[in-house]
């Protein structure tokens, strides 16, 4: 079952493709997206990564949470449902 992760603290220049490539080091990524402002198209500095397995998701959290990514410290955790 796929596991969705929230990734905060992304550099504003990060693309969805770069995000996917970084998280593929921990396991198979089924989807990666950087959230952008709908009016300006500029990144909001966070995104979501969907990992194929629970093990891959946990590996990604351990690999990236609190770690430097292009000069910024990432916050990676399991995504929570919108309320």
Blueprint (SSEs and pairs):
Blueprint: E1 3-8, H1 16-23, E2 29-36, E3 43-51, H2 54-64, E4 68-69, E5 72-73, E6 75-78
Describe the structure.
The chain has 83 residues and is α+β, with helices and mostly antiparallel strands. The protein has one domain: RRM (RNA recognition motif) domain (Alpha-Beta Plaits). It is built from two helices and six strands; from the N terminus they run βαββαβββ. It has helices at residues 16-23, 54-64; strands spanning 3-8, 29-36, 43-51, 68-69, 72-73, 75-78. A four-stranded antiparallel sheet has the order 2-3-1-6. β4 (68-69) and β5 form a beta hairpin. The model has no long low-confidence stretch (mean pLDDT 95).
Which keywords apply here?
Nucleotide-bd_a/b_plait_sf; RNA-binding protein; 37% strand; Alpha-Beta Plaits; 6 strands; RNA binding; RRM_dom; RNA-binding; alpha+beta; four-stranded antiparallel β-sheet; 83 residues; 2 helices
């Amino acid at each position: 079952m796929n596991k969705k992760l929230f990734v905060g603290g992304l550099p504003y220049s990060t693309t969805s493709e770069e995000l996917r490539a970084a998280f593929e080091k921990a396991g198979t990524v089924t989807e990666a997206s950087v959230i952008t402002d709908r009016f300006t198209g500029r990144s909001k500095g966070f995104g979501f990564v969907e990992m194929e397995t629970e093990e891959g998701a946990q590996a990604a959290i351990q690999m990236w949470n609190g770690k430097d990514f292009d000069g910024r410290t990432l916050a990676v955790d399991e995504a929570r449902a919108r309320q």
